[in-house]
TrEMBL record:
Stated name of the protein: UPF0158 family protein
Pfam families assigned to the protein according to its UniProt record, in alphabetical order: UPF0158
Lineage, uppermost ranks: Bacteria, Pseudomonadati, Thermodesulfobacteriota, Desulfuromonadia, Geobacterales
Naturally occurring in which organism (per UniProt): Pelotalea chapellei
InterPro entries assigned: UPF0158 (IPR005361)
Length: 151
């Protein structure tokens, strides 16, 4: 018989773990407490890693955002940019061509595109985190479905 275990997970901490680009950290979610924590990837504590391996059902390793996923997302964003000049600059930036700067620095001069990029990132991350939670039999409650009584 399966038991349902309600646990509160701090959404911001979970999203931060998913957006981690640092290869020197490994993030985990404790399914029993909802705690999100990280350890150095180079941690040489055999007992710790053995405990993580033995308790795989309890401690889930959180997949980090890698360069390939980020690049694929940004390529999709650039493909949707309608301004041909901006699109050319952003394509130059993502390909590393000189004299272009960092993509986020360039986009900061275009408030509407910057806002659209942030909205796309939020949607992408929300979807990615929710799919991961569901794949690990952890379910979320949509805030839109929660009815707060009016006083």
């Amino acid at each position: 018989m399966a038991f349902v275990h309600n646990v509160e997970i701090e959404w911001d901490e979970l999203v931060n773990a998913f957006t981690n680009l640092r290869g020197d950290q490994v993030h985990f979610l404790d399914r029993q407490t909802g705690e999100v924590f990280h350890v150095p990837a180079t941690l040489e504590d055999e007992d710790f890693w053995r405990q993580m391996e033995t308790n795989r059902e309890r401690f889930l390793e959180i997949p980090r955002m890698d360069y390939g996923v980020e690049r694929q997302f940004m390529t999709g964003f650039i493909g949707a940019v309608e301004d041909g000049g901006l699109k050319k600059i952003l394509n130059g930036s993502i390909s590393g061509a000189k004299p272009y700067g960092k993509l986020n620095d360039i986009i900061s001069f275009f408030p509407e595109e910057s806002e659209r990029l942030q909205e796309m990132k939020d949607e992408f991350l929300t979807s990615r985190v929710k799919h991961w939670l569901e794949a690990n039999n952890l379910y979320t409650i949509d805030a839109d479905m929660i009815r707060i009584p009016r006083l």
